[in-house]
Amino acid sequence: MADVAFKAEPIISFRDAEKIFPASRKRAEVRAVDGVTFDIEEGEIFGVIGYSGAGKSTLVRLINGLEPLTGGSVVVAGTELAGLSEAKLRPVRQHIGMVFQQFNLLQSRTVAGNVAYPLEVAGWGREARKKRVAELLDYVGLSTMANARPSQLSGGQRQRVGIARALATNPRILLADEATSALDPETTQDVLRLLKQVNRDLGITVVVITHGMNVVRYLCDRVAVMEHGKVVEIGDVYSVFGDPQAAITRKFVGTALADRPAGEALERLRERHPGRLVTVDVRGCSSSDVVRILGAHDVEGSVVFGGITEVGNRPVGALTFELTGEPADVDAAVSDLQNAATIQDHGFKDEL
Questions:
Q1: Most distant CA pair in the chain: distance in Å?
Q2: 311-332 b/e with 16+ CB inside 10 Å = b?
Q3: Once rounded to an integer, what is the mean pLDDT over residues 262-272?
Q4: Positive or negative, the Cα torsion across 110, 115, 121, 122?
Q5: Is residue 41 part of a domain?
Q6: Does residue 102 sit within a domain?
Q7: Which end of the chain is more exposed for a tag (fewer CB within 10 A), N or C?
Q8: CATH code (residue 339)
Q9: pTM to 2 decimal places
Q10: Following CA atoms 266, 51, 46, 313 in sequence, which dihedral angle do they give, to the nearest 10 degrees?
């Protein structure tokens, strides 16, 4: 009999998960998580993105049981969390590390003391704690700062301490809730590289909560987009960047790529370029393909706007060309471009 390949169970599974905060004298009822269903596979880096109030932070608190479910199901590492007591949640939380936006370090403790804290809670002996702390500080590049206080560290260093602390008890899952929001761009990149290294070296599943699409672009394998408590789009990052379906996703992608002219930017292009403007999605058609198609119709094309980046080692973005030539030739070239790629035809200046 031929071997049968079985798909591993997801490490985190949501099924119609709900978290509703009831109405009070100061606020109406809030459906923070509203009927969410999706899986997170073991070993992947999964992003959850949304604006403030979308429900993403509440969603991550469902994973570690810090918020009880109102309805539905959340299964983490094979354990259904709905209805579990605090005592029964503790073994689940031992498999989960947490990295916070504001670091949440204990100011009264040294760097080493902060990393050792979860080991003390877990009952590790002194020598085992000392060895583990040394390993972790070396891993995050802070061996020389073991005796420093958090107040003596930069924001990036404090977040590295937070990551080391989150890794202390060898978790299977690392939750990073807006872990880079308080950092400058260069430090953000350093922390994202460390999270990617943690995933690659240790095989830990990383769940990233963010409102920054550039974080998703660099770090994540897949992403769920949340709005008003619902997941409105989910998929691998390349597909979501290249062909966003929901309006909110298109808005996020636009902020990360800034590759397509619109509004005042398009009007300014129109003032400078009287020819026909066409925006071409580079996923289906490279600039050399465009040049070839235009040349076949004796049409000139100049790049006047655009942006291209890499997602999953593949190009994503768009280029806007000004096309000039005989109107019939330009029409034929645009028709061929439409057959070869996804394009947006902005027309001529007098058609605006």
A1: 82
A2: beeeebbbbbbbbbbeeebbeb
A3: 87
A4: negative
A5: yes
A6: no
A7: N
A8: 3.30.70.260
A9: 0.85
A10: 20
